[in-house]
Amino acid sequence: MSIQENLLFTPSLISPEVQAALPKGYTIRPLASDDYERGFLDVLSVLTVIGNISKAQFLVLIKLFFFTLERFFYLKAHNHEYFTLVIVSSEDRIVGAGTIFIERKFIRNTGLVGHIEDIAVDKNQQGKKLGLRIIQALKYVGAKTGCYKVILDCSEKNVPFYEKCGFQRKEVEMAWYC
Ligand code: ACO
Questions:
Q1: Model's pTM, two decimal places?
Q2: Pairing relation of β-strands 62-64 and 82-88?
């Protein structure tokens, strides 16, 4: 499998300005199917409990009757809607990650809204502006795919971070757990 086939979405949606602004030796790129080995899930563990996810589970989403929908390859098949990108260190480890997915609305003249989710920077790498670069890169994807706005939910303690990333407080998040 070539590196291009290995990637979740086209690297042409990665902002060259964000790549240029990263610390030396770091790269930003779409999630790859072998990022399990590079510690992708370890980075996500700064967000919440991840569980004991195997490589197969990283690739496989659900088995429904006779149909198997694979996580990575399911997302790749929908890569006009799901964009997960990662920052990789010079040691070839994943040190940051973030996702934007694109919602297709009827309102706003069938407008598109980008939803930012699961922003995570490795504990040892925080404070190096990697979080800021991930958000800038996701905003770039949102703009390039034609979104009229990009939104996200966050905790009160992360509000100053997102304000520094150019977001402003709007509305209230509500949740219902099934
Ligand atoms: N409070 C105040 N300012 C902050 C905070 C904070 N909690 N976090 C970062 N900042 C500031 C930084 O000081 C910096 O300011 P400066 O430009 O004046 O120097 C600016 O925001 C950019 O900071 P980064 O260095 O890019 O932040 P970092 O790489 O550490 O990433 C992040 C921030 C993503 C919140 C990281 O700390 C993290 O992974 N936290 C744990 C997981 C988490 O909470 N993720 C967000 C969940 S919400 C969601 O996913 C939509």
A1: 0.93
A2: unpaired
